[in-house]
From TrEMBL:
This is Ribonuclease E/G. It comes from Belnapia arida. Residues 37-107 form the S1 motif domain. It comes from the Bacteria. The keyword Membrane applies. Pfam families: RNase_E_G.
Amino acid sequence: MRILVSVSPGEVRTALLRGDRLDEAWIERPARPDGVGDLHRARVTALAPAMAGAFLVLTGGETGFLPESEASATRQPIARSVQEGLVLPVRVTRAPQGGKGARLTARLTPAEQARAAAAPPGNAPLLLARGPDAALRLARAHPAAELVTDGAGLAARLRGTYSPRPVFDEAVEAEFDALASPEVPLPGGGRILIHPTPALTALDVDAGSAAGARDPEAQRRVNEAAVAEAARQIRLRQLAGPILLDLAGMTAKRRAALAEPLAQALAPDRLARLLGLGPLGLFEILRQRIHPPLHEVLAGPLTPGLAALRQAVREAASRPSRRLALVAAPAVLAALETFPGALGEASEAIGQLLQLRPDPARPWSHWTIEEAPHGG
């Protein structure tokens, strides 16, 4: 088992590999962390007995929700645990979602309580400590795994092995690129189409050529492969909430026979639970949300912009004397210019300022790194 951590301007990508197989994938933007695990001093702004909880204001004015089950060890009604205006230390247990604030807990470890007690005095909301990033979480969960990173500072912090070359090879890069696509090819033919919506995520299995094959077992083999791959994609993409899996064809009885293989495929994922086969013939899965799903992280023009910076750094390393320009859609360049630190990190890694050239005719994904003329 290996943990590979790729550090690039504005972004850290972390892969957990079992052998050569990608088992977990994380994409983080340190300038805008998801906040999970952060320790705050927060102030109660409103009790919500009908919702069995209270709203608290965090550092920067963000709002979080404290369920009454997390307000105290005795789990008493929220009005007996906290009062409006009360200041108390809390930890973020779930990232914000769908316009709702972060989920909080006041049930802290002794170490967290000690850190909160050592904070500067005052009643203003205060960020006391950042939560662990993906690399640290994986290192703690798999202490025997080798950790290799191309970020010197991160290698020192995590006591990992530093690599002067990019730690992601072409295969890992391709797998991370594929996580941005809604289509997952299946071995032997067929595919899974992934459709996230605000309410749920639908996974649709397309049998492809097997749908019309004369071999009656061809469709079964596609669905068996789809069951295993669906469980893997749910974990890799951090899909959360209600998830519906629609297999290709098959009678209800034959679909039901795949319930046990699906449950076994989901078993290593402690956040996922198979609810069963619903009346419409769809497998119903519920997965707890903690971190944002990858499709939320990757949405918008910032993602192609950060990919372009990563490529610019690589091209500069291969030919240090070149002056480089990023040609991209205005929205991509605007996203980079408003994202803290990314352009500065890229220019530092390149050794000179990266020129930005807007091209309104380009879609977001069609950026290029070009050689800039001297004096341009």
